[in-house]
Amino acid sequence: MTHQRIAIYPGTFDPVTNGHLDIIGRGAQLVDRLIVAVAVNAGKGPLFELEDRVDLLQEEIRHLPEAIAARIEVRPFRSLLMRFAEECGAGLILRGLRAVSDFEYEFQMAGMNHRLNPAIETVFLMASETHQFISSRFVKEIARLGGDVGSFVSPRVVARMQRQFGAGHTPPASDPTAPTLPQLAPRAPL
Ligand code: ADP
């Protein structure tokens, strides 16, 4: 039996962006199986329920080239990431790295996960030049204020967000993903 190289790409994916899809597509070419692991992450006050985030990812992956899509699986998880990785038989945790903003958080997470299980390596893919600045948080903020997010997410995600905001979803006040950047809000009339 040949040894399969299995990687886990964990995240909140609220919602999946073109930046995530770029990491997924590139990551899947480096391994035999890529498990996109969707975290509950209730603390982040997600816009989409876990099941919806999984659905959206599955839908996006169906649109990738078949040879790549065949290696990818999307799974929700509610447990400790390293335990989930062990259950999946993964040897790698895949993460994306944007400019400097992600570094400290990712550095700490990789270090602590390494302590929990040194046999599982965290590997990083640099965000592509064209997707460097995309974040789910800003996508939600722009969409909530009626801006065009069509170059950051797929048309399917755009439609789902329109429905969600149309349904009157307002993130809770304590939500760290709630709008905080005044420059993205519509300007007050002069
Ligand atoms: P988390 O809550 O775990 O940070 P996210 O869904 O925000 O989940 O991100 C999952 C992973 O994808 C992280 O490693 C993050 O750095 C990476 N990522 C997010 N956006 C991009 C992007 N535009 N390009 C490359 N990687 C990204």
Q: What descriptive keywords fit this protein?
A:
190 residues, alpha/beta, Rossmann fold, five-stranded parallel β-sheet, 7 helices, globular, disordered C terminus, binds adenosine-5'-diphosphate
Strand order within the widest beta sheet: 3-2-1-4-5
Residue stretches low in confidence (pLDDT < 50, at least 5 long) are 172-190
Number of domains in the coordinates?
2
Tell me the CATH superfamily of the largest domain. HUPs
By DSSP (H or I, 4+ residues per run), the number of helices equals: 7
Shape: globular
Q: How would you characterize the overall build of this protein?
A:
The chain has 190 residues and is of the alpha/beta class. The chain has 2 domains: 121 residues, HUPs (Rossmann fold, 3-Layer(aba) Sandwich); 49 residues, no CATH class. It contains 7 helices and 5 strands, in the order E-H-E-H-H-E-H-E-H-E-H-H. It has a 5-stranded parallel β-sheet, sandwiched between helices. Helix 5 links the parallel strand 4 and strand 5. The longest helix is centred in the middle third of the chain and has 14 residues. The N and C termini lie far apart (70 Å). The C terminus is likely disordered. Adenosine-5'-diphosphate binds next to strand 1, helix 1 and strand 4. Adenosine-5'-diphosphate (ADP) binds next to strand 1, helix 1 and strand 4.
